[in-house]
Amino acid sequence: DTFVIDKVLPYFTNKLKEIVKNPKYYFYDPGIRNFALSNFQEIDLRHDKGFLFETFIFQELTNILDDKMKLKFWRTKVGAEVDFVFDWKTKAIPLECKSKMKKPVLSRSFQNFLNYYNISKGIVLTSDFFMTDKFGSTEIYFIPYHWFPFIKHEFFS
User: HEC states along 53-114?
Assistant: First the structure.
């Protein structure tokens, strides 16, 4: 490990419908990524601000994960994607990163994942609001990203 870039592997159970080989890469130092892209604009002016927020969340998640949890992502061959999936014991717990979410809305991709895998819990990390909701039989937690390290035991016990 060079601790410059890290690879996240895809979560899958169906090789015909889901991406199984193409990993996602995250820089530990987004400044190196910004340099490689020659893009030092303010965050609000950037077209990739969602991915920068996702990278920040990736860094935070890698700090709080233990050896039993694997951090993955989910993507189908038709383009549906969930930012992260905790592959933990026999469970999958999806997590979406939404930096500008104003009201609790689940993306179609997140809903598809919940339906396909019959998930009991899902997490959406937001900038500033907390609430719980239901999607079918799935409990959905909308959590400010800075709270997650303090309440992660609620999801992994």
Answer: HHHHHHHHHHHHCCCCEEEEEEEECCCCEEEEEEEECCEEEEEEEECCCCCCCCCHHHHHHH
How would you classify the pairing of strands 69-75 and 24-27? unpaired
Give the CA radius of gyration of the chain: 16
pLDDT string in tens for the chain (157-residue length) = 667 889 999 999 999 999 999 999 999 888 888 899 999 998 888 889 889 999 999 998 888 887 778 999 999 999 999 999 998 877 899 999 998 888 899 999 999 999 999 999 999 999 888 999 999 999 999 999 989 888 877 777 6
Which domains, from first to last, does the chain contain?
5-154 (3.40.1350)
C-alpha distances (whole Å) from 29 to each of 5, 7, 32, 50 are 8, 14, 6, 16
> What is the C-alpha to C-alpha distance for residues 108 and 134, in angstroms, rounded to an integer?
15
Q: How many residues does the chain have?
A: 157
